[in-house]
Amino acid sequence: MAEEMRNDASSSGGDGSNRGESVIDDYGRRRSSCGYCKSGGPTSISHGIWAHSLTVDHYQALLDRGWRRSGCFLYKFEMERTCCPAYTIRLKASDFCPSKEQLRVSKRMQRFLDGMLDVKKMDEGIDEPNTSKASCSTIPNEIASSAARESLAGKIEEKKVQFLHYLSDKIDDAVHAFLGSGNFPHDIQLPKASIKKVAPSKRKLLVKGSEDLLFSSNISFQIAAAVRHSAKEAHNMMLSRDSTEHNSQSHELSPKMIAETLSSSLCQLAEVSGLSIRACNGHINFYSANKMAWLDEVDEKVSKSKESPAGSGVKGCCLKKVCEYPEEKRHRLEVRLKRSSFDPEEFALYRRYQINVHNESPDHVTESSYKRFLVDSPLIDVPSLDNDSVPPCGFGSFHQQYLIDGQLVAVGVIDILPKCLSSKYLFWDPDLASLSLGKYSALQEIAWVKENQLKCPSLEYYYLGYYIHSCNKMRYKAAYCPSELLCPLRNQWVPFEIARPLLDKKPYVILSDFATVPNGEFSEPIALENNMEMQHDGPVQEDMIDVPVDEDEEVTELIEDSDDESDSEFSLLTASLVEDGNVGDTLIGLKESRLRYQDLQHAFAPPQRRYLETQLHRYMRAVGTELSKQMVYSLG
Question: Which superkingdom (predicted)?
């Protein structure tokens, strides 16, 4: 018997990985008020367990059965009965396709870091807490590289815009100088010179094929038109010799002639800018032999030519350095990953976030509630130890810190498991709401999965928590696509695009009934699904601007015992159709002993045995037959 007890205990790790032992207390069915539809009554129905310890493998298996944790408390909604069915949603990181909005979030952050964006003008001023403490690793990410490329493109574009203004000013100088030579009537209104970029598709084959046409100005056509208009007004219906001469002169000032004259007077501009300037059929064209290489050198050339020689036709050049932003306006972003632990600076940020963003009472946001909700974790840490199947940071519960200029601005609470990064919660500085840190952190976490899959091949997915179609503020999770939802009956993953039209009709659907078969058609739903239809008429919350990755309530404080077991058979009907094993194989923990229930049942009186077996059946259906054999069901 002692040997069997030792074997059972050693096998509780589940997969032979020797990663510890999962020990739980089963709370059974729980009823509570709903934080999503705000129904007021105990309409949220779930099964709850308390984990004294939990291996990462077992928690991964529980996630894939619809479970979720809040601190050390784990819960799973009874989907066919709860008011707001919550479907586990995940994304395969390697398949992620960012939307335009998500790309804008990355670009906005990069602009802020480059000093090009002032969040004080978009929102309120920045007032971050102090920096956090030591970390165990810095997370590289692909999104940052993408954002850097976008930032580079943005810088080039910004340089172009500023340089176009500069070119326009220099052409205006040349036009006014030309006006003083007596070629134009003195009373005409000259237009402001405009420079336009030339799209590649509109560029014609040049004589010098190695050159690239970048910009063009049609100012010559505008000047010629202004001269003709002025001549008409000044000499309307007059046939004198003087007017004839003037009209003849006006005719000679054609766009082609004006363009050639102005181009010849812009020789110093060509030298400063590194561009070739030529007239072409009335247009003033700007060419570059090295495409955009001149942009990197133009600042230095312009700065050396601020004092132009007199009589050059182009007055002193004064082009600002078009891509240099003051060092004091730039910001430094650092992302750190640390094991879950209490940090006073994190708590101070969490407190500000809950009070300002979620309007919680300051008395409610306490250190103890924060620890229970976001710090305490039953997960047993797994270090890397140069193991090819474990990422460098290891497995377990972590806090991912975001620091800007050394100040803590956001914290993502995550679990890193054998198959996924599970995002639990994010809190951020309310003064930086305009940076959409919730969306930005999700992109960072997806990139982290892709990066670390190279080290840990099993690490493929990003879990976003629960998706509740009937709650508007939770629908943002489906924007991270292509995502998939977990079928509440058969624990199969179904593409969101298949699930969405079904959830539009009713909140609870056995999704696997509608999964595609190999030929791409829908399979026929079983009759049971129609019998389980449930209507939902509760109010939904308004959408939020930037919702964190998960809005899980602090369920450990909301849960109440349910004494009503009259509908237990209905709640377990669908689960029993999927799997129902022998409770005799359930691993029982009694003090320091580990026994199978079949070896222990004789120790209970018949009434106690019947009650315990009812509980064990419910527990086994909730966690699954295999996990009931591996996790320790504690009896004290």
Answer: Eukaryota
